[in-house]
């Protein structure tokens, strides 16, 4: 299974390279096609009880969200409220996950992503993800968090602002998968951690596998709760894997 996700990771990056070889001077189009590459992967690998599309979310007050690169929602119990071509508008109660997709990342883009996720404060039951194809290093991502300019004189995240950050951040080419976590060092902190494992054959569990396993757990938990039926059993029990290392980003005191 580890080798499979390594092959798929390389396939996704190759598809992106093919896009950029033909479309070299139009970043919006590259971004759209990048999103489609990841949507295609998720459509191929997730149960058909959920749909994977792009579009908007409308809450119970009638407020419309910003456009979402990828929405994973229950399309059996909730038909889209509106559809035009490949773009849907869905009710907030149908949404399981929101994924923001980036071809590359830098400080400015990352800070805009933080602001973007603030607008989804009415989705307490949906998980949020940032997926980066060609990411800077995990250390750089930490720097981007710490250079974010907050309103007011207190220039740190806190419990209120932390809840609006993406739940998980995946960098494919750098192969890291950050999750919100408590970080225990000399002091007890809140932030993100990325755990690096290898299987019994010594193959690393790469970022795409972590990302997919997380999405799949969200979907299967929802299906089990609402449909009383789930067929997926995760083949990679993390208790049977060897932990190689942990990287942590500390944001604020507990």
From TrEMBL:
InterPro entries: DUF6602. Residues 24-121 form the DUF6602 domain. Pfam families: DUF6602 (PF20247). This is DUF6602 domain-containing protein. It comes from Marinobacterium aestuariivivens.
